[in-house]
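The freezer alarm interrupted the setup, so I double-checked each line after restarting. Inputs confirmed:
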Amino acid sequence: MTKAFSLSLIILCIASALLQEFGLTRLMLYNVSPDAITVFLAFLAVSAGQRASTSFGFAVGIFTGILSGNMGLNMLSRTVEGFIAGYFHIPEDSHATAKQKKRRFFSAVVFAGFIGNAVFAAGYNPLGLSTAYRVVVLGLLESFITLILAVILHWLFLKKSLVD
Amino acid sequence: MRKFFTLFSKYNTYLLFVIYCGTAFFFIKLQNENVLTRLRNSGMEFSAVINEKLLSITYLFTLNNENERLMRVNTDLLTRVLNFETAAFDERNRRKILTDTTLNPSGYIIARVVDRKFSDRDNMLLINAGWKNGIQKDMTVLVPEGLVGRVTSVSEHYAKVMPVINTDFKASVVSDSSNCMGILSWSGGREFIAQIEHIPISSHLKLNERMVTSDFSTFSVRGIPVGRVVRIKPDKLFFNVDVWLAVDFSSLTQVLIAPLKIEPEKIRISTDSTLAEQFH
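Predicted 3D structure, all chains:
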């Protein structure tokens, strides 16, 4: 990982956390909103590996935890998201096609988002929803709208980075 | 030793993951500790400032000053209504009139809601008044229509409010006509319906009765409207009661914060059993 790449990752990390906290939480659909941090962690996992995505997940969890007031749970769910997304890493010497890389990136978004949401739901349920509804229905819905966000971001910015 | 290092380098990602998760669990456990509270308050302050700036853009097109003036008039009227209702209630029950000194109009603080989160991840209100404005933890938050919630954490300029529509919220309430007492709670679902627990089936609660906060509440001043009874269903020992909340949480912009109810003797005697025994 070059110095410039690390720096751009840190900037991306802060930008996605701020976008999530102050922008995307207002785009509510059935009490869930798209998650820019999951998209960032998935991108990081696919391009830089599981260790980086887990560490960044932990760091971004601290940041969003401070802003939202629920530090421990944010740290845990983001770390788990980064770790799960890490299983979709594409090694540098891989001969994967652009289509395969894209598919792995989207899979990382869906799986990491769903499991991260389930971890959060296990620890905090402010609306008193049933666990099954909270984890399965809202988890799937959140993963789906996060996937839409990932598709848009991939189309706009990430396509070139992933192919490289 | 060599084996250990080989194992470590091979599985370092997993070890890192375990360490991170351990740290996260440690923080979950320390959620209410002082250092963490201070950290959370600073974060909340920062978050609130940004949210307030974002929100203030929309206020450019509203009659903000006029709203505040009307809110002040409303505060005075509310105080008078609450005072009269409490006095009438006391008269009916042959109690002392006007013992409640907490309903003092000058004691109310007006604040604006600068952020509202109602999602599966968070459910709270943020108001633009903090300890510099005299806000303290456990103060009652209300609007002229009724009870909004209670202050749960305070920073210098902002405070976090747990609304009635939070599953952790509980308050003691009483019916204004049949005097049935119960515990107000919210079990999720619709944001305009809450539940009242522990009303025995022998009580004479009727539909459309108005529920107000009771004297038993440890934080709220009495007589604040909570809602209207819309469903009564008998269970084994108690009624399952639904109330239509008096406050419309979807259009909450400004709130009042009532002075803190300080009853140290009441709290002391209800928690300390040995103190009560001394009088026998």
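Quick read of the result. Helices of chain A lie at 3-22, 36-48, 50-68, 71-85, 98-123, 131-163.
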